[in-house]
């Protein structure tokens, strides 16, 4: 059964491309990245995928990301560490965590630290799209 927990933070990017909001997917599982990327693009959303947190941080898409789909446990920097680093640099990118192996403590930590939501894998496509659209419709700022 899928579990959706939505935090109390309000989010929206500072700027949007004329083509729409960019969704960044950061997950070390290639099949999850590929299927999520396909779903989002098929649904009319702009999306890019990244193997790891470090790749996302080095990318040109960091400043343009309107919503970050983020796995908790990955090689190198994990999702919670990326969340912390973004907060330390003042970037208010809405984060929707999605994980199959995260503990309840990790989920509580993510939400307490300002995550917009937390989904458990496997995630139904309707639940994922609903959570993303909810995030994109709620105002905030992605600061550099």
Mean pLDDT reading:
87
The rounded Rg comes to 13 Å
Approximate helicity band:
25-40%
Residue share in β-strands: 15-25%
Tell how many strands the DSSP assignment holds.
6
Shape: globular
Order of helices and strands: EEHEHEHEHEH
* N→C terminal distance: 37 Å
How do the strands line up in the largest sheet? 1-6-5-4-2-3
- Strand-pairing-aware structural class: alpha/beta
Uncertain runs: 1-19
Count of helical regions:
5
Query: What is the chains' assembly state?
Result: single chain
What composes the largest sheet?
Answer: 6 strands, mixed
Topology:
Elements: E1 4-6, E2 22-26, H1 30-42, E3 46-50, H2 53-58, E4 65-70, H3 79-88, E5 95-99, H4 104-112, E6 117-120, H5 125-136
Parallel strand pairs: 2-3, 2-4, 4-5, 5-6
Antiparallel strand pairs: 1-6
Please give a handful of descriptors for the protein shown:
144 residues; alpha/beta; six-stranded mixed sheet
Describe this structure in words.
The chain has 144 residues and is of the alpha/beta class. 35% of the residues lie in helices and 19% in strands. The chain is built from five helices and six strands; from the N terminus they run E-E-H-E-H-E-H-E-H-E-H. The protein has a six-stranded mixed beta sheet, sandwiched between helices. Strand 2, helix 1 and strand 3 form a beta-alpha-beta unit. The longest helix is centred in the first third of the chain and has 13 residues. It is globular, with a radius of gyration of 13 Å. The relative contact order is 0.24. The N terminus is likely disordered.
